[in-house]
Structure formats: C-alpha cells, structure tokens
Amino acid sequence: LRPAGAPVDGVKFAAVSYVELAAEDGFAALVESIAKVSPNAVKSWPPNAQCAFYINAYNILCAEHVCRTIRSGGGLPASVKDCVPEGSKKKEIWDVPAGAVAGQTLSLNEIEHGVIRTRWDEPRVHACVNCASRSCPDLLGQAYRGDDRLDYQLTAQFKLWLRDETKGLTIDESKKPMLSRIFLWYAGDFESRGGSPAYAAQYAPAGAARDALATTAPDYFAYDWNLNTQ
After folding, report:
1. Confidence band (pLDDT; 50, 70, 90) for 53?
2. Phi, psi of 222 (to 5 degrees)
3. Is 32 strand, coil or helix?
4. CB–CB of 100/29 below 8 Å?
5. pLDDT of residue 67 exceeding 80
6. Whole-number Å distance between alpha carbons of 7 and 134
7. What angle do the packed helices 47-69 and 149-163 form, to 10 degrees?
8. CA–CA separation, 178 and 96 (whole Å)
9. What is the Cα–Cα distance from 165 to 157, expressed in whole angstroms?
10. Whole-Å CA distances, 2 to 9, 102, 113
C-alpha cells in the first residue's frame, strides 16, 4: 500500500499493488485464514472483535477479487467491477461469491449489508470498508483491531476521509459543500444522527466546507470506480 500522492484524474487515493499482492504467498494464507476461523469462536467474541473481523474480511476479499482476476490470466482490471468471472456475467461483482468467512461463503454485499450494517448501527464503518476503487475511503495500512483500539481506528479513518478535498468533503466555487457520494447512497444510516451533513460536520476539519454543511444542502462528488492502483 502506497500513501496517497498527487491526484489522478482529480482524485487522490492510497494505491495498492495488486500484481504484487496476487503473487504474495502471505496474502493467499490470509485469505485462507479467515475461511478457517471457527464460526462458534466468532460468535463468542466481543462485538468489537466481530466487527473488526468482518471489516477486515471485506477488505481482504475485495482485494482477492482483483488478485483472482490477475492470477487467472485476465491481467490487471481497470475496475473491480470488471472482475466478474465467466458464468456470472449477469451479476455485479458485489453479488459474486467473494470467499469464505468463518466457514461461510459470502459475497461482498452479504458481508457489508447482511452482516456489518445489519449487526452494527455504526456509520463510521463507511470509512473503513474499501471497494478497491479510487473514490473509496482509503484502505488502512493495518488490520482493524477487535479491542478498544477499534473506536479510535473508526474515528481516525472517518476524519481522514473528510480531510480529503478530492473525494471526502470540499466546498465548490459557489460556496456549496460537496460530500462523498457514499453519504447520499447510505443516507439512511445517518438519519438517527441528524442526517449525513450534520454527522459529517462532527468529524470534518474546521473551515468553510464544514461551516457550509450547517446551512446548505450538499452536492456529491462523482464516483471514480477505477482501480485504486498505479
């Protein structure tokens, strides 16, 4: 993982070297390890540990979609959306089986919506699941931890996301705030906390963009689905 550098097509992103990752034995072992975890063991873990496990599983298996495409001879895809295997062309990548998590084969949608968003009423997770795309909140360069550090990691990632003026939060020439499109797609996750703009303002850096969220309905960035690689 390389930290975000200069914007590419107007978007800054932390770049993943998927070609290297696809050839890395350690990554293959990591994919295998999340499959082998006992489901009964997961159920016995405290909520923070379970949440961290499924966030990590999402990020690992989303990257594995890309790596699987590379290893099959398909080359580096332009987007994770191009990783749908033959025979599954009527499906979007989010609904293709991504891999096993604690013995259960799941798609990315099943992990994110069927597990994470269903079990935890926690909007900060939107800054932590990474869909291998430039406009996604950047991938954390370490695993999410299932102890008291998880709260810190969730907050830190959410703040980092909103400091990014290319895809998190900015103010346009007409003084109107612009937010990540994720805040529009998942507006319901923020309703009980005052709505997307108010929630974003709590974590945004001080400045004109944060102030504008209090008085002006935001516009939303276009979403760049190109692969987060260089």
Report:
1. very high
2. -65, 150
3. helix
4. no
5. yes
6. 10
7. 50
8. 32
9. 15
10. 17, 29, 28
Is the model's pTM score more than 0.85?
A: yes
Q: CB neighbours of 183 closer than 8 A, spacing ≥ 6?
A: 190, 196, 197, 200, 218, 220
Q: Which residue has the tokens 């992990």?
A: 111
Give the burial string for 183-215 (b: 16+ CB within 10 Å, else e). Answer: beebeebbeeeebbbebbbebbeeeebbebbee
pLDDT tens digits along 96-114: 999 999 999 999 999 999 9
**Residue 190 tokens, joined:** 């923020």
Cα within 13 Å of Cα(6), Cβ side:
1
Q: For residues 216 and 40, what is the distance between their CA atoms, to the nearest angstrom?
A: 48
Q: Distance between terminal CA atoms of the chain?
A: 11
